Amino acid sequence: MKGGNTFRLRGRSLSLTLAVLIVTTIAIWAWEKNPFANSLLSAQELYTIPTSEFHVGSQNDSVVSMKPTEKIEENMSHSIITEETKGEEKFGTAPVDAISAFSPEMIDSDAHVISSSKSKVCNYAKGRWVADSRRPLYSGFGCKQWLSKMWACRLTQRKDFSYEGYRWQPENCDMPKFEKSTFLQRMQDKTIAFIGDSLGRQQFQSLMCMATGGEESPEVENVGKKYGLVKARGAIRPDGWAYRFTKTNTTILYYWSASLSDLVPLNISDPSTDVAMHLDRPPAFMRRFLLHFDVLVLNTGHHWNRGKLNANRWVMHVDGKPNEDKKRAEIGHAKNFTVYSVVRWLDSQLPSHPHLKAFFRTISPRHFANGDWNTGGSCNNTTPLAGGSEVMQDGSSDPLVEGAVKGTAVKILDITAVSQLRDEGHISHYSLRGNLNVSDCLHWCLPGIPDAWNELLIAQI
Ligand SMILES: *[C@@H]1O[C@H](CO)[C@@H](O)[C@H](O)[C@H]1NC(C)=O
Ligand SMILES: *[C@@H]1O[C@H](CO)[C@@H](O)[C@H](O)[C@H]1NC(C)=O
Ligand SMILES: *[C@@H]1O[C@H](CO)[C@@H](O)[C@H](O)[C@H]1NC(C)=O
Ligand SMILES: *[C@@H]1O[C@H](CO)[C@@H](O)[C@H](O)[C@H]1NC(C)=O
Ligand SMILES: *[C@@H]1O[C@H](CO)[C@@H](O)[C@H](O)[C@H]1NC(C)=O
Ligand SMILES: *[C@@H]1O[C@H](CO)[C@@H](O)[C@H](O)[C@H]1NC(C)=O
Ligand SMILES: *[C@@H]1O[C@H](CO)[C@@H](O)[C@H](O)[C@H]1NC(C)=O
């Protein structure tokens, strides 16, 4: 489908519609037989993702003196490692049930056919990366107010930055050039919310950097308190951040919810208690503040593995009771159930929130080669677009999100295939304090690929 496939479908002529549909259907059949034949990743890598929320900086090399802010980041990443991935040493390999849950046979074929025939008009995810000398949109040496140091590759030993010099050009859609003042004016009196995992946080930081141009911006006000986003006593960080651009009264916020399910400790006064993970109930934060949002971008994916659930003591609940459905207890099914549930809930809310534009961002691809994150996997390529620059398929490479939003008013923000072409844009083995023995082929350098996700988002709001 991408990278040298033969089906180039151009034009919108009505007479072509039938042909397009037939060709697409055939292409989809082929794709379903072997969805990842033409890509760098296997289906297993894309959809099982054992451990992903792992942060470089976890190595025991953090003794060098650091500024306070950096220490916080270190503590954060450390806490993420220890709290979020504690169980992963034990449960490091991909859970088998997750693999089987997303085997190609289980992909809903209708989802592809219908969405691809609908998306003829303008599919932002279909197009190509083009070199652009006016990139990046902000300097990787700047944006210190918003950009986590662990993701600022310009501050590491990395020497190649050609990955910064591209923009995404959809084939059949207008893609306005990003201009921060135009963007903020358009977003006057509006609130943009990201809810999801660390990849959602990357997109949030990217948008903050884009909107400020990466410049020191004293006029941006921290309004976390308004959303209860304050560091609790004993906590290492708040559950999110919210900032308001005072001139245009634009708020951009991020809330950490790795699974998009409501997490409720079973016994609030017992710190070692299990946590009910309500698969059919969106996070309380989202239910409470939805009415304040004008744009909402959800994502999940990389936290759905048995190790993380166990390490966090998350116990699946459905209907307010512990889940007893054995099939649903399998990680892949639980994730599917949750994604469908949260989309259905959001869709049901949209009529009473007519100003809200809701997006579900598709999964961000990983690029570990020759091993996984904990077995020496790496992503050393530094040549942009070595595997091709175009996405030619009509359907999404994330059938889960594509299927869940189908027939709802929740929109897909499809970045999977787009990002899959950019294996050189990850953090790789670089860190602030030298090169590491492990690679982060999940998170992206900033400025970088998530900037394009935001341009895709902005084009669609
Ligand atoms: C790792 O860090 C701990 C505490 O900072 C220290 O006691 C230990 O010696 C370190 N280990 C290595 C291998 O540097
Ligand atoms: C980082 O965490 C350690 C314990 O894990 C704590 O003692 C220290 O105060 C924390 N530092 C910051 C800056 O939060
Ligand atoms: C800022 O925008 C919000 C809507 O997002 C609105 O409720 C509020 O009144 C605005 N504040 C000012 C000072 O205009
Ligand atoms: C909750 O935890 C506290 C502290 O461990 C304990 O005293 C209490 O009995 C627990 N409550 C329930 C309902 O289990
Ligand atoms: C995901 O859930 C939806 C809705 O319940 C269902 O129609 C679909 O078959 C499920 N897909 C998988 C792969 O389990
Ligand atoms: C780097 O990791 C490999 C396994 O992935 C290990 O065999 C090797 O000893 C490590 N090297 C250092 C310097 O820690
Ligand atoms: C990638 O680079 C790292 C660090 O230089 C090295 O250990 C690893 O073997 C390289 N991987 C490949 C596939 O070349």
TrEMBL record:
It is found in: Membrane. Residues 121-174 form the Trichome birefringence-like N-terminal domain. Signal peptide: none annotated. It holds the Pfam family PC-Esterase. Residues 175-459 form the Trichome birefringence-like C-terminal domain. GO terms for biological process: plant-type secondary cell wall biogenesis; xylan biosynthetic process; xyloglucan metabolic process. It comes from the Eukaryota. Keywords: Membrane, Signal-anchor, Transmembrane, Transmembrane helix. One of its GO terms (cellular component) is Golgi apparatus. GO terms for molecular function: acetyltransferase activity. Its main location: membrane. The chain crosses the membrane at residues 12-31. It is a single-pass membrane protein. Belongs to the PC-esterase family. TBL subfamily. This is Uncharacterized protein. The lineage of its organism: Eukaryota, Viridiplantae, Streptophyta, Embryophyta, Tracheophyta.
